[in-house]
């Protein structure tokens, strides 16, 4: 058994790593869901699958126990289904008007029932007429219109958007607007249902104008904003800001600037990098074979210089350590202070890059993504290795006599990444 | 006020209307920005302006991922978080920490804190970038963002007492498994992305891009979601325009803030008993420092040993020979050269290494032709950079493992009568 504080630290560290992994997995799965759905046959908007809504609200609705419909809900549902049946009949009678603007109204009718009620499909017997969309199999009862391949209807009924997120059981007033929309939908145009797959008709798609305008304006504004940055450093504004900061500092009565947590971390990071650079140079010098005395002397001087620098870095770390150790800890009951994410370029680099990343094949993209993950994983492994070394090696060396099981476990963790184990044999002199 | 203007500046002389406009622009560029009236009241330290400013600061300082949950926090909790966050960023004034927890007072101090944050960095742009609507399939080219923010959540599983080492082994195994799953999912996502890009070739109005991204295709599939995306985009555009307006006129604001600071009573100098107040850093920070110190100590020892040997060998070789003038001038030249090299080495890490490496998220574009991309990144370059990083990290890992092996072998050697059979290297 490991001592309590050591256990706590190790478990916390590993759990943190596991959590980080889980978070990535979650994001990846969201993206996968979206992508898979895009590559399937596109459902017309009328029978919207509940999983279309990726906002957190929907997720909560999925899991809330209040999802199961009560008798009130079933009554409303019954009303709605009847109205929709009427609409289906009426539509069969009216001729095709070819009005795209009606599409959203029809959609809004079926919206009323779909979102958020994924958990309770069995109790919805009137499953036809598109009144409910079960999670796996959206019904095609009201598939009267399809989403037109080109563009999308710009005019929408204002109520449609709001209702999309409210579950059926929410309010009794809901069938009201639903019915109203049904009346509008009665004269809607039935269009021949077509199935749409990205594979066949993907190249026919076209982005809506409003979006295109907004997107180009967006990139134009960002370009303006990022080019405005460097100008700042040469004019009066920067001077005014510096002056203000200085005044703030002197007005506070403190002798010198206080180191922020982010700065300390950044400095520790720099010193760690210093360590690896120094080590690299040391290796180079030691492995170089000096051919004459000048080179030998130079090598010697370099090594001594490296040693001096290492000493200075260590000294700086000790200073930081001492400063940290004496600070009073003020408890904050809620969460932790936020940390400004340190950009790896340092300073105020571009906030995000308008530069594109071009790839030429699936293989290349896969390699890129896999390598990225591998680098992240290795970085985590190196960090964990250091942590484990710091915790476990002292344990093993402090035990007298060292427990074999512990030695074996520690060896596997530290030297083999936990993947392989060594074998220990008793060498019994009596037998040989 | 009698303060001499440092520079004649057209913005400052634009008249009385300039300041409210600039403040309004600032408000529009920030999330949850209060009205200019709040700012004016804050200058006079009116209590009614305080809650709005607390909430604004909270919004600015809380981690972006916690938006949904944290918006519902009570004012007291927000106050506490703001204080702690400002402290950890090194806010110099002590008055802030002494403001009441219920958020009822201190609007002038909060105004100063806001300005302090604004002066230190391009805050509106950073916030806008964080909330930026991603239209393309973005893939980060480097891992620094992901590595810098390790799990903001409090770990929900905490070992309460001593655990067996097998628990540690199990957790490591779980971690390995999770990484494998992650890599597999990622490969699938890449395939799907590639297909989507292929199928939508020729659709994009922007010639450079050539095909749609997932977000854009999704928008076409789901017009409702598309409308939401459009609204978000338009909101972002409004924010960007406001930020531009702010940048153009912010000098007026800084002049005004000088007067606000001047109106504050001078702070009593820090009491002698209170030490230089450094922010509370999570235990993790301290641990990292110790790890770094450990590494440096180990390095220093190795260097000490190596230099000792070399110096002894050198003395033995040269000691007998005379020291002529030729020798000393050559020696000086060498010393200088080495000093310069080492100075360059120091600069390498002290300067935080300029943006030589591309970083940050980039939009993925499938482009089969071999035409020189010019200003755009090619996947092959990124792959190369990542491979070299991978090699570095693997070398570091192997070195550490080697160290452990040596150490454990040494400890095992202390136990006679045992044979240690190492697992085969594969």
TrEMBL record, chain A:
InterPro entries associated with the record: DUF4693 (IPR031518)
UniProt biased composition (Polar residues): 107-123
GO biological process, one term: positive regulation of smoothened signaling pathway
Top-rank lineage group of the source organism: Eukaryota
Pfam families (alphabetical): DUF4693
Segments of skewed composition (Basic and acidic residues): 52-64
Region of interest (Disordered), residue spans: 48-72, 93-179
Biased composition regions of type Low complexity, renumbered to the chain: 160-176
GO cellular component: centriole; cilium
Bilayer-crossing regions: none
Protein name (record): Tubulin epsilon and delta complex 2
Automatic annotation (TrEMBL), chain B:
Domain Tubulin epsilon and delta complex protein: 90-261
Membrane spanning residue stretches: none
Family annotation (Pfam families): TEDC1 (PF14970)
InterPro entries listed in its UniProt record: TEDC1, TEDC1_dom
Record protein name field: Tubulin epsilon and delta complex 1
Organism: Propithecus coquereli
Lineage: Eukaryota, Metazoa, Chordata, Craniata, Vertebrata
């Amino acid at each position: 058994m490991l001592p309590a504080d050591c256990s706590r630290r190790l478990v916390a560290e590993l759990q943190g790593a596991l959590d980080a992994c889980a978070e990535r997995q979650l994001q990846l799965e969201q993206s996968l869901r979206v992508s898979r759905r895009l590559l399937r046959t596109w459902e017309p908007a009328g029978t919207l699958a509940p999983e279309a809504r990726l906002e957190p609200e929907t997720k909560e609705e999925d899991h809330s126990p209040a999802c199961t419909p009560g008798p009130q809900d079933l009554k409303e549902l019954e009303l709605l289904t009847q109205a929709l049946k009427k609409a289906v009949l009426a539509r069969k009678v009216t001729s095709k008007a070819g009005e795209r603007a009606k599409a959203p109204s029809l959609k809004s009718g079926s919206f009323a029932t779909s979102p958020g009620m994924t958990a309770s499909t069995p109790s919805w017997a009137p499953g036809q007429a598109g009144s409910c969309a079960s999670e796996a199999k959206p019904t095609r009862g009201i598939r009267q219109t399809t989403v037109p391949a080109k563009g999308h209807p710009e005019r929408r009924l204002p109520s449609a958007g709001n209702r999309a997120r409210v579950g059926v059981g929410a309010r009794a007033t809901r069938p009201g607007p639903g019915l109203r929309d049904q009346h509008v939908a009665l004269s809607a145009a039935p269009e021949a249902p077509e199935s749409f797959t990205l594979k066949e008709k993907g190249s026919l798609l076209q982005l809506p104008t409003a979006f295109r305008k907004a997107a180009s304006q967006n990139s134009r504004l960002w370009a303006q904003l990022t080019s405005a940055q460097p100008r700042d450093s040469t004019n009066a504004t920067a001077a005014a800001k510096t002056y203000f900061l200085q005044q703030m500092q002197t007005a506070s009565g403190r002798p010198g600037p206080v180191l922020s947590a982010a700065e300390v971390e950044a400095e520790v990071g720099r010193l760690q990098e210093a360590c690896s650079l120094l080590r690299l140079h040391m290796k180079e010098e030691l492995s170089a074979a000096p051919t004459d005395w000048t080179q030998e002397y130079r090598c010697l001087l370099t090594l001594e210089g490296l040693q001096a620098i290492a000493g200075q870095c260590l000294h700086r770390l000790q200073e930081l350590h001492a400063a940290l150790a004496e600070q009073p800890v003020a408890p904050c009951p809620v969460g932790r202070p936020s940390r400004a994410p340190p950009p790896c370029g340092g300073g105020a680099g571009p906030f995000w890059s308008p530069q594109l990343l071009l790839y030429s094949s699936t293989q290349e993209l896969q390699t890129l993504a896999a390598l990225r993950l591998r680098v992240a994983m290795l970085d985590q492994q190196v960090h964990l290795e250091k942590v484990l070394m710091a915790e476990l090696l002292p344990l093993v060396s402090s035990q007298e006599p060292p427990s074999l099981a512990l030695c074996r476990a520690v060896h596997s963790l530290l030297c083999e990444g936990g993947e392989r184990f060594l074998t220990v044999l008793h060498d019994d002199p009596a037998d040989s | 006020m009698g303060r001499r203007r440092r520079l004649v500046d057209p913005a400052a002389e634009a008249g009385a209307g300039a300041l409210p406009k600039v403040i309004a622009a600032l408000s529009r560029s920030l999330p949850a920005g209060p009205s200019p009236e709040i700012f004016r009241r804050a200058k006079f330290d009116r209590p009614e302006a305080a809650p709005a400013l607390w909430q604004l600061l909270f919004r600015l300082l809380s981690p972006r991922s916690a938006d949904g949950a944290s918006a519902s926090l009570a004012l007291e909790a927000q106050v506490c978080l703001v204080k702690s966050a400002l402290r950890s960023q090194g806010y110099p004034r002590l008055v802030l920490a002494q403001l009441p927890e219920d958020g009822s007072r201190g609007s002038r101090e909060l105004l100063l804190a806001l300005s302090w944050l604004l002066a230190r960095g391009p805050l509106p742009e950073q916030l806008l970038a964080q909330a930026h609507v991603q239209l393309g399939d973005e893939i980060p080219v480097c891992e620094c963002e992901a590595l810098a923010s390790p799990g903001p959540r409090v770990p929900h599983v905490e070992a309460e007492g001593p655990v067996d080492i097998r628990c540690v082994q199990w957790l490591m195994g779980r971690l390995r498994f999770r990484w494998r799953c992650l890599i597999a999912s990622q490969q699938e996502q890449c395939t799907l992305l590639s297909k989507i890009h292929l199928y939508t070739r020729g659709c994009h109005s922007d010639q450079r891009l050539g095909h749609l991204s997932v977000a854009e295709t999704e928008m076409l599939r789901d017009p409702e979601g598309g409308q939401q995306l459009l609204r978000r985009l338009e909101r972002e555009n409004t924010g960007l325009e406001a930020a531009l307006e702010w940048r153009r006129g912010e000098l007026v604001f800084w002049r005004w803030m000088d007067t606000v600071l001047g109106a504050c009573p001078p702070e009593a100098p820090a009491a002698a008993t209170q030490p230089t107040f450094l922010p509370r850093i999570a235990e993790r920070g301290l641990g990292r420092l110790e790890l770094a110190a450990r590494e440096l100590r180990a390095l220093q020892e190795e260097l000490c040993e190596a230099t000792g040997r070399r110096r002894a060998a050198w003395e033995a070789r040269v000691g007998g020979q005379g020291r002529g003038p030729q020798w000393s001038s050559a020696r000086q030249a060498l010393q200088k050269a080495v000093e310069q090299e080492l100075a360059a080495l120091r600069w390498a890490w002290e300067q935080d290494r300029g943006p030589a490496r591309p970083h940050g998220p980039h939009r993925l574009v499938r482009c089969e032709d071999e035409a020189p991309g010019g200003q755009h990144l090619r996947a092959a370059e990124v792959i190369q950079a990542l491979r070299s990083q991978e090699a570095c990290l693997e070398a570091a890992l192997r070195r550490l493992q080697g160290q452990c092996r040596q150490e454990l072998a040494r400890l095992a050697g202390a136990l006679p009568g045992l044979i240690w059979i190492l697992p085969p290297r594969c």
